[in-house]
Amino acid sequence: MIGAIQERVRALTPVADADLGRMLRIRHFERALLRLFERGQLNGTTHTCLGQEHVPVAVSGLLDPDDYVFSNHRGHGHFLARHDEPHALLAEIMGRAGAVCNGVGGSQHVYHERFLSTGVQGESLPVAVGVALRLKRVTPGRLACAYIGDGTWGEGSVYEALNMAQLWRAPLLVVVEHNRIAQSTPTTAQLSGSIAGRAAGFGVLHHRIESVDVNVIRAELAPLAAVVRSEFRPVVAEIAVHRAGPHSKGDDTRTPEELREAAEGDWHPRYAEAFPEQFARLDEEQRAFIARMVDDVLIRPASEWERP
Amino acid sequence: MIGAIQERVRALTPVADADLGRMLRIRHFERALLRLFERGQLNGTTHTCLGQEHVPVAVSGLLDPDDYVFSNHRGHGHFLARHDEPHALLAEIMGRAGAVCNGVGGSQHVYHERFLSTGVQGESLPVAVGVALRLKRVTPGRLACAYIGDGTWGEGSVYEALNMAQLWRAPLLVVVEHNRIAQSTPTTAQLSGSIAGRAAGFGVLHHRIESVDVNVIRAELAPLAAVVRSEFRPVVAEIAVHRAGPHSKGDDTRTPEELREAAEGDWHPRYAEAFPEQFARLDEEQRAFIARMVDDVLIRPASEWERP
Amino acid sequence: MRVAEHLNEALHALLDADPAVHVLGEDIVDPYGGAFKITKGLSTKHGSRVISTPLSEGGIVGVGAGLALAGDRAIVEIMFGDFAALAFDQLLNFASKSTTMYGRRVPIPLIVRCPTGGRRGYGPTHSQSLQKHFIGIPGLDLYELSPFHDAHALLATMFARQNPCVLFEDKVLYTRRICRDGVVDDLFRFELVGGWARVYADGDLPPDCVLIAPGGLTDRALEAMRDLLIDHEITCVLLVPERLYPLDPAPVMQVLRGAGTIVVAEDGSAGGTWGAEVSRLLHPELWASLSGPIRLVSAADSIIPTAAHLEREVLVQADTIRRAVLA
Amino acid sequence: MRVAEHLNEALHALLDADPAVHVLGEDIVDPYGGAFKITKGLSTKHGSRVISTPLSEGGIVGVGAGLALAGDRAIVEIMFGDFAALAFDQLLNFASKSTTMYGRRVPIPLIVRCPTGGRRGYGPTHSQSLQKHFIGIPGLDLYELSPFHDAHALLATMFARQNPCVLFEDKVLYTRRICRDGVVDDLFRFELVGGWARVYADGDLPPDCVLIAPGGLTDRALEAMRDLLIDHEITCVLLVPERLYPLDPAPVMQVLRGAGTIVVAEDGSAGGTWGAEVSRLLHPELWASLSGPIRLVSAADSIIPTAAHLEREVLVQADTIRRAVLA
Ligand SMILES: Cc1ncc(C[n+]2csc(CCOP(=O)(O)OP(=O)(O)O)c2C)c(N)n1
Ligand SMILES: Cc1ncc(C[n+]2csc(CCOP(=O)(O)OP(=O)(O)O)c2C)c(N)n1
Ligand SMILES: [Mg+2]
Ligand SMILES: [Mg+2]
């Protein structure tokens, strides 16, 4: 087993500081959130993307500022990979001044420039199709990218959207973060067949990526994104990931075995092992940055919102 | 072209009086409806199954009285193939005494014994899954059969149902009457990929039947129904048909070319040509029967309903 | 001109004037032109901006919201308003919420058109008037077509507010004539005041009763008013708002203050009705002048049967309104 | 005992007593036991009758209706009541309609459980109280959990009517203690009368004001009543119905007739509220004895913000009720 992991570790390609730094920034951001919750300093709920940080970092490297991104409940990484504004996001989650949506939307409902997240699973896919159709007409070459989880494939709206996207040739890139679980339910208990098969059934191009290497993921995604942009057609890119943390907070009922497997699938220890110096340097940088960021946001006054 | 059709005609296997009689009974029933509409004697709306009568006749030969059938807007044939009660159905459509649902449900909303139709496309598939699960537990070997059209594959509920049916092993037989059109929209403009592919994507068994021969259809369906019953799993049986009439009444905007194609795909002239004597005899029998039936229902008083 | 043609012309005008306008719906392109022919000719004239969709009511409302979010203007036709239930989540949890839940105003110029109502024998799932279920969703505005209000101006108003809107369109109203130049018929006249049509008998005497009703009730309200005037010498004024929710009674407050009796009529089934909402708004204002609570007329607390003779018993008829006024 | 445990016990009892009872919902099986732990232990004890489902709110309500149609009894948990919007069509156009639209009574014993309400910082799409949108659907009954009503009896009542039902369950109420033996706290007592809980201050003096509220409001209503009594010497009686719709006011008519002031409080946003429906029922009955229209308290006409300080401004607080009584 350890042999196998080391194999994979060795397989990691050299990573740019910018990418690894961003992955670690998101990691520290999410960890900070869980700490704040534990200390009772955060209200409401949150879903961290621990273990999945590398996906949006890989994706965002391929996005144009004019592309739209649709995100879901597990959206901090999606946001931070695209917009390097952790202060604004933490302020949003904590309802403090400088919040990206004035504290109204919170963790699950963020709209900033062309990034939009919503908390109702599946709902944003048809919306993304509409946005993609507008982009195709007005700024051909731009796309709508929608992140969804494997569990979200239970929702009928996903299929209504895929059908229309393919029929009308909407430039839509669906990024599926397949972490093999939905809240507490293993994918085997909530998804029959496969995501590959489902996409194929709608005539939609699909590609599955198994790697945790941010470069590999980006490299495999690049031609897919190019197809979306140039051929005006939807693509489903499914990325195998592991959820290294709880669904929300303190609600992880997986067995020790499952937890170990998830931990082994996490990119974090692999990068730590593969690039020890670079990792240590960037990790310390990001740790310190996020710590300062948290301190900064914590002393801010409450956000203000004028009810319309 | 004529050569090709004759080829297919010759290919028809000998048909039982009971089957051809029922197909013709349904045909005359539907024609009578359109005549009644033309004469202003029918209120509301109706969707006739002209051209598709052989499908429910083939299916019903495989059903057990304890099976449930879920039907849709185009359900007269589904009903009459299962329940030889044209009086009760016409009375329902005309709101006369003896109506199967007291005239409350009308053409699209019939519930009789274990036959139930609804007018909202796709809605009945999850319901059928629930019924199938009960059947599996209480009377294993019984199934729920749901008829849907190709256009109904636009609805998300279809996929939510397929997923659950496959995950939970519901004995559900989905009969797809693929007439290549939904109201006015050709299937190519409303369905990407294929029904076969969609079923496969959910891990659901699928089989497509191209024949108009009632025996062939039944023979191809029989092992599928047996799988549903004995293996407790859903099956999608897709049957190629042609809608020989309008969607509803007088709303056929297909081109002459398309109409000719639909007429050529109709089982009716083929059976007439292949079995001229049998056909003529049964046709006259059924024509007369339906004519008497219409006369009988026409003189009935209005249905009564005590509002709950 | 009939209401259906008038609405069709309005859609043409909208598409002509603004290249950002898109129309989506099931079977809306030519030659079919929609189940009620409201979109007839649109696709021939405006091509790819008029799109026939798969059967996906939730999905197409989502697509419309996406277009609107990104800068277009979208009109989505739900073939039968009953199926708007399939788009309830998109309207409640996405389109309307997005206008405010991101902490700032986000425009979502989206109109969802819902052919509505019974009296055509289409049965329980194709005849409903679901207005009441959409009331009180923050950020969602409800309108109803009437023979008095100009459809083009109405659609423009709806887009101008930049909120998602649902437009209810009575299916029988489609077949009726539009009223113009202040004339309804030999007996009745009308004027428009701040989004309301005020319909009064020639002579404009102070009314004994004020009737409030969405546009779809017009035919039955007028018939009741005629009977009441001729048979009972009771003068009624009919008030028809273009926007059902949020309702702004200010422009007609003067009319209402004078009324001893107020009747609200609508087509939805009894219970939790629009009329109850109208009463909530008006009762505090009019408490002193009212002789009794505002009277509510609606369909029975029942599904809508298919057979004409049964359907009639359930739905609001002119006589239902007449009896409420006389009660 | 807390309301959550009490409800959990009721579900256990129901599953114990009747092998036809099935429970479906997202993540409801052990060890997770549901997002709010209401289904904890059910799957361990009752195996295949307790089913974790995919994310398919519309679908699982359909499956529940199918089970019910065929002879089972089904309870479907919607993880957050907000997502019941996705099942609106199944409830409106199938489950409720099927009870009558086939011309005879068809039993559909289906309970859709909806954890509801805010005050937990879950944000705009996870905090709503959507009761009002489900009011007035013929054949659909609406109930709300309260600390006074026995949950097992309540569920049994819902099944007994054989109509599909929606049960609203306030998420904060889950964490509160149930009230038994007529005792609420040091100051208040309660009794059950025909489906209503009547909560009164010890001594049971004739009240100055009657407060009507669904169970989820209990904590805030009691706090307001306490303040009003102590600070203002105003005596209130609180009436909590187990069934919100159709509402049967008969059992409490006596109490209401005595009241000069009636206040209806609820958690949904303003506009088209349950309170408007309550007023519709009561105004005609009480017109003569009321000093003014029934006063309605609800959340603001707004989405529900996430941040606690903003959420507080929008939602009903004890003080909102207190001010309405004093107004
Ligand atoms: C329509 C809807 N149903 C249920 C939920 C509650 N919920 C939030 S996340 C989640 C699981 C999602 O699983 P998946 O799509 O695999 O994403 P993951 O959490 O694994 O990232 C559920 C059930 C929701 N937010 N929206
Ligand atoms: C949810 C819903 N949307 C729209 C309709 C209106 N409608 C009735 S039949 C139909 C076309 C159905 O096409 P298909 O499923 O292929 O069946 P076919 O009519 O061809 O037999 C439409 C759009 C409906 N009844 N229900
Ligand atoms: Mg997942
Ligand atoms: Mg078809």
Automatic annotation (TrEMBL), chains A, B:
Single biological process term from Gene Ontology: pyruvate decarboxylation to acetyl-CoA
UniProt keyword Cytoplasm present: no
Matches recorded under InterPro entries: DH_E1, PDH_E1_Alpha_Subunit, THDP-binding
Signal sequence extent: none
GO molecular function: magnesium ion binding; oxidoreductase activity, acting on the aldehyde or oxo group of donors, disulfide as acceptor
Residue ranges, annotated region (Disordered): 244-263
Record keyword Oxidoreductase present: yes
This protein's UniProt keywords: Oxidoreductase, Thiamine pyrophosphate
Ranges of Basic and acidic residues composition bias in the record: 248-263
Name used for this protein in its record: Dehydrogenase
Provenance organism: Acrocarpospora macrocephala
UniProtKB/TrEMBL annotation, chains C, D:
EC number in record: 1.2.4.1
SUPFAM superfamilies, per the entry: Thiamin diphosphate-binding fold (THDP-binding), TK C-terminal domain-like
Protein keywords: Oxidoreductase, Pyruvate, Thiamine pyrophosphate
Oxidoreductase among keywords: yes
Any one of the GO BP annotations: pyruvate decarboxylation to acetyl-CoA
The Transketolase-like pyrimidine-binding domain, residue ranges: 1-176
Stored InterPro entries: PDHB_mito-type, THDP-binding, Transketo_C/PFOR_II, Transketolase-like_Pyr-bd, Transketolase_C
Molecular functions (GO terms): magnesium ion binding; pyruvate dehydrogenase (acetyl-transferring) activity
Reaction(s) the record says it catalyses: N(6)-[(R)-lipoyl]-L-lysyl-[protein] + pyruvate + H(+) = N(6)-[(R)-S(8)-acetyldihydrolipoyl]-L-lysyl-[protein] + CO2
Cofactor(s) the record lists: thiamine diphosphate
The protein's role, per its UniProt record: The pyruvate dehydrogenase complex catalyzes the overall conversion of pyruvate to acetyl-CoA and CO2.
Name listed for the protein in its UniProt record: Pyruvate dehydrogenase E1 component subunit beta
Originating organism: Acrocarpospora macrocephala
